Amino acid sequence: MVETPPSATGEGASATRLPVAWPGPDGSAPRVEAAAPRGPYTAAIAMVMGAVGLFSLSDIFAKQLSASLPAVQVTWMRYVLVGAIALLLAIRRKRPLRPARPLLQVLRGVTLLGAGLFFIMSLHGLGVAEATAISFVTPAFITLLAVPLLGEAVGARRWTALLIGLAGVLIVVRPGAAAFQPAALLPLASALCGAVMAIVTRRIGASDSSETTLFWSAAVGLGLLTLSAPWWWSNFDAWFIAPALLMGGLYGAGQYLLVMAYGRGDASMVAPFSYVQVVFATALGAAVFGHIPDAISLGGIGLVIASGAYTLHREGMLPDWRRRPAVLGQGPGRGPEH
User: Fold this and answer.
1) Which parts of this chain are annotated as the region Disordered (predicted)?
2) Comparing C-alpha atoms, which of 278, 296, 285, 279 is closest to residue 332?
3) Residue 332 within any structural domain of the chain
């Protein structure tokens, strides 16, 4: 789950910070290189919705592959394609790839890998809709972490939204109930990794360009997965190649649409539409796997969506200097996320 990260323009700490977005399950909102124009947002919103639709399709293929292959191998397949895209973008834009803060870049790469791996692992035991909805609790985790790590003040309204979102997750997960599945904890781990990644992204945003961050996030994840391959590699038949390419291709196409979307509209305006991914995931899960969440789970999913959308709304009302850079996707991401 690797996506174009938000960062500064790459011109140094004094560079003007641009609009940012919240994270999703598997992965991250692209960084735009110029302030988004004011005006009609129809095209940008359509692009965001198209992107999350592609992410949901990619997750469908990931779930199919994870039924026969280790989740870590499915994650590696996605990283191979995204790593190639990251390298091509870096070469095309001719930005320096040497990071100013290498340790933080490595930490970001590790947390991004964790977000994507935990999400894909969850697909083996959960429906795509439930996994996607749970991983969308990332904004709540960011709010929690921003207080001790960034010294950020959080108002009563955002605390209320956070608690509502967590309540929605508890309704979906239902710990202690007969319907509880341990796999439901994996999207939570994915969301936590995504939140840590978002905090780290803020630390490196003023010193490294988007292309540098994207490249190193992909390189760290792909490197770790490849080095560990002898312990998890499973030989696969040729028929796995097509769905693997589709999984990576759909994911990459979604990233391209996000780049276009955030170049056309303010992140605070278009980012809330990323929650349409939960709707897409539910519809695709029903169509492909015949899985429809029960009424209780749907109620919890609704609370998560309402909480996240309100948090994004409040974020958009903050001054630019107080906005937290983060990532959008799926993901979960997903992420990139996921």
Assistant:
1) 1-22
2) 278
3) no
23 occurs within a structural domain? no
Whether residue 2 contacts residue 86, with contact meaning beta carbons closer than 8 Å, is answered with yes
* Residue 290 neighbours by CB under 8 Å, 6+ apart: none
Q: Is residue 27 part of a domain?
A: no
Strand partners, 26: 334
Chain center to CA of 333:
3
Domain that holds residue 218: 42-322
Are 28 and 327 in contact, with CB atoms under 8 Å apart?
A: yes
pLDDT one-digit tens code per residue, 264-292:
766 556 666 777 888 888 888 888 988 88
In a domain, residue 37? The reply is: no
Q: HSE, CB side, 13 Å, CA atoms: give it for residue 205.
A: 28
What's the rounded Cα separation, in Å, for the pair 291 and 284? Answer: 9
Distance, in Å, from the CA atom of 309 to the CA atom of 3, rounded to the nearest integer, reads 21
Domains in the chain, number: 1
pLDDT digits (tens, 9 = 90+) for 213-257: 878 888 999 999 999 999 999 888 888 899 999 998 888 787 777
pLDDT grade, residue 117 (50/70/90)? very high
Measured between alpha carbons, how far apart are the two ends of the chain, in Å?
Answer: 5
Average pLDDT value over all residues in the chain? 75
Residue 242 C-alpha from the chain's centroid: 24
